[in-house]
Design goal:
- The structure holds two protein chains of two kinds.
- Chain A is of the alpha+beta class.
- Chain A contains 16 helices and 21 strands.
- In chain A, helix 7 packs across helix 8.
- Chain A is globular.
- By secondary structure, chain B is mainly beta.
- Chain B is built from two helices and 15 strands.
- In chain B, strand 5 and strand 6 form a beta hairpin.
- The longest helix of chain B has 9 residues.
- The chains are: A alpha+beta, B mainly beta.
- Chains A and B meet through helix 12, strand 20, helix 13, helix 16 and strand 21 of A and helix 1, strand 3, strand 5, strand 6 and strand 7 of B.
Chain lengths: 491, 156
Amino acid sequence: MRKVLIANRGEIALRIIRTCREMGLATVAVYSEADRNAPHAVAADQAFCIGPAASAESYLVIARILETARKAGADAMHPGYGFLAENGDFAQACQDGGITFIGPSVQAIRALGNKISAKELMRSAGVPCVPGTDGEEQSLAILQAEAEKIGYPILIKSAAGGGGRGMRVVSCLPEFEGELAEAKREALTSFGSDAVLLEKYIANPKHIEFQIFGDGNGNAIHLYERECSIQRRYQKIIEESPIPGLSDALRQRMGEAAVAAAQAAGYANAGTVEFLVHGEEFYFLEVNTRLQVEHPVTEEVTGLDLVRMQIETASGKPLPSQDSIQPRGHAIEARIYAEDPENGFAPSIGELACWQTPSGQGVRVDSGFREGMRVPVYYDPMLAKLIVRAEDRPAALARMTRALEEFHVLGVKTSIPFLLDVIRHPDFVAGNVHTHWLAERFGAWRECDAIPDEALMALAAAERCGQAASLSITTGDEGSPWRSAAGWRNI
Amino acid sequence: MALRGRLAEYMTYRCKGQMIDLSTVVQCPNASVVDGVVELSFEDRIVRIPVLLERNAITVSYRGRVYRFERESAGQSGAHHHASDGVMTSPMPCLVTKVCVKPGETVAKGQELLVLEAMKMVQSITAPFAGRVAKVNVTEGSMIQEGIAMVAVVAE
């Protein structure tokens, strides 16, 4: 392996490029017309435009990306996360083109990408699964009978989908028929198939995942857990490791199950096994056949570079032993989004007029943005991942608070004030959270009304000095008088 | 320079549902603004606060929280008029140095209507399209706030 094409953008592309450089590998970036001059494109040894801003015409066009790899002479492909990372056709196209795909095999992506076949595989490997149907029978009568057998409440979800779309909770028999019809309709429009699965609905579970690595020859290890219960719109916003309150016995059983899952799939490279946990019981949820957004949490506690491990595994290097994986300390990640937490987390589009990131011991910021950049409307509005590491959880929480307070973003709204309130909430501090906790406690969140004197003094100073035009401010507001020097001429 | 002091006294802002009259805010005597950062120097501490200035708002970031102060005077003028409807509004607090037209006068597209001065700069306000001057709300030598409807042109 000599040259890696990174089929992605933003912070993850930048993060992969950095490891490649440290390993002496040449890098090729691809970018859309909206990402010209984006940090990831600038950071790579070579960069090629692959189409218009819309992902469907650029980052998702397999043929264009492979053609770019050939043109640049890349012999390996890293898909990052999202976009084509879990697309079997993309892995297949790389394989057909003689390019090493830094990820699992085509077969593993396909087998684990389908929830039904994944669950069957896990059952056969003895990994506990949530009681439910296999998706073969789709008639109302049979599904209704199955629901009775599993016992209400029941969760109906799309067999092909994910991300919470098409999911419905049914609490009793009379509601079943109507909810089923709705779930099927939603599944069809979102995922092109109306096949649904029934599952026992587990109230207030924790969402816990294990990082795994396989070598494709039946060997696998795990890199311990990440707590991912803090989600908004089914998207994680805070992750940490280790998990407060997780017993050593349960941690060990889950780790073994994660390894068994990897082995059952003949898994190669990095993956994540997700579980729902209720008390001391855990159930297999799904395998994400990619590097996760939250992988830095595991890197910080294990001291390992997961992208380096991915590249080494793809090059045929044996896995480290399970015993050599010894996590230390505590790590927490908070995702900073350009969004309005007071308004349903609606994306906030604009220009980053001010962008000051925190630093200092144990603070890591993975971001694909710099000051002055516009937050593009075409892609995920995640601005940065803020990861802190400390010797224990209280120290990590204090460090996260400190780092969030050092983070300054102006020009778009961000989740920073929201995250500060979440990590200081007594339930969060005590580790008493589950997947519905955020919606229950923070569903109607409003920022505190108090305005500190310092903010008022800054307002007064800015007002006074603003009229003297001593501010060199760029803003997303095209109409800003401080920007619209166009019609004005000096006297 | 006298212009700055006078305007600041009248400024009212709104933030988190509260009205803030700048003349009542305790001001830091040693404050400076450089490159988008306010520096407040007190006897025993120095506070640096990033600020963003927009047409109708000043936003500051302090200790993980962002405070957006919306200019109340601008808010009261209601929806912002754009040149496209023929109503020319003041782009910022400024001095009207010249009024070139009278109500009822016919103007050509691009014809000079007013001349403004602020921040050591002048700007000509010109007719967005040919028409007739319906109204002139400002007089030569007057100081006006931001967002004031200065002159209206109607197409004939």
